[in-house]
Amino acid sequence: MRxxxxxxxxxxxxxxxxxxxxxxxxxxxxxxxxxxxxxxxLDALTYxxxxxxxxxLQDRDNFRFVKGxxxxxxxxDRLLREENIDTIAHFAAESHVDRSILGPDAFxxxxxxxxxxxxxxxxxYWIEQGKIHDYLFLHVSTDEVYGSLGQExxxxxETTAYAPNSPYSAxxxxxxxxxxxxxxxxxxxxxxxxxxxxxxxxxxPEKLIPLMCINILLGKPLPVYGDGQNIRDWLYVGDHxxxxxxxxxxxxPGETYNIGGNNEVKNIDLVTxxxxxxxxxxxxxxVKPARDLIAFVKDRPGHDRRYxxxxxxxxxxxxxxxxxxxEAGLRKTIAWYxxxxxWWQPLLSKEYQDYYQQVYS
Length: 361
Fold this sequence. Notes:
The chain has helices at 2-7, 21-33, 73-82, 97-102, 105-128, 167-186, 208-218, 237-250, 267-281, 312-318, 326-339, 341-344, 350-360; strands at residues 12-16, 38-43, 63-67, 87-90, 136-142, 190-195, 197-199, 222-225, 231-236, 256-259, 264-266, 294-297. The protein is α/β, with parallel strands linked by helices. The strands form three sheets. Strands 3-2-1-4-5-6-10 form a seven-stranded parallel β-sheet, sandwiched between helices. The protein has a three-stranded mixed β-sheet with strand order 7-9-11. It is globular. The protein starts with a helix and ends with a helix.
């Protein structure tokens, strides 16, 4: 690994949304693998951004955290020049479908206007620097832009037509189109990745897997939408970080790469598997078996039935494949939540409880 690091070009990377779930895991991955690179993290620290996710990294000489909004053009312009950025890894986004249904405004602002602000600032900076060929703008997106699949439909490929069904996925589709347009119109080196559902450490409690883990520990009901037959492909966040690393170093500008875990699971099957693993791994649960806590609730409006990723392209062209199956990834995730109560307990704020009641009551 040391020889590999010494042979590669050192990067000065700006990671937006680097205090969020996937972003903070990527920051940790990059710090560990490329300790000589300069890492600048930009995050607005909204409800899902948590400085505790990366607090232990801030004393590194080549690490800088900046609290700020990706819609703040003067800030972006200044950061790119002050830090001589050559790579942007863009994670910053409003990302929860339920919240986009309740209040789409923030999703339009952050995901569309914010992404445009970053792209256009980077374009002017890149031109100013002489259009250096190995600069890169990595836009991290979602499989939800492709819409919903039937039970027998083939998995999403990079050529699948976009058909977003929620304000969240529509806003991400818009930002994807902008990133693509900046490559084809201006020649600016952009790459888009579309990933399936991530899970792992530092995941905000409103999402399915951390929600179930925490509610089991608290003895609270486990709300499952509709009939629980919705299918998702689950990708361990560590695998996702390795995939993005591969794309940054080997990917081709102008291309899109789908990143999946090869783990299609029905929601109800995932929840029951979580319950059984929690019964095994967690001591002194308030309710056991944890399956007794499962409670079906009214379905989400416009709930997509199935997502599935065909990750053939990134495997054949770049040599990446996921390493974790669902059970191994869930065991790691559960162990993290069991060992880090001091991380998740403060997040169960009144605002979070009010939101929870609004969605699941």
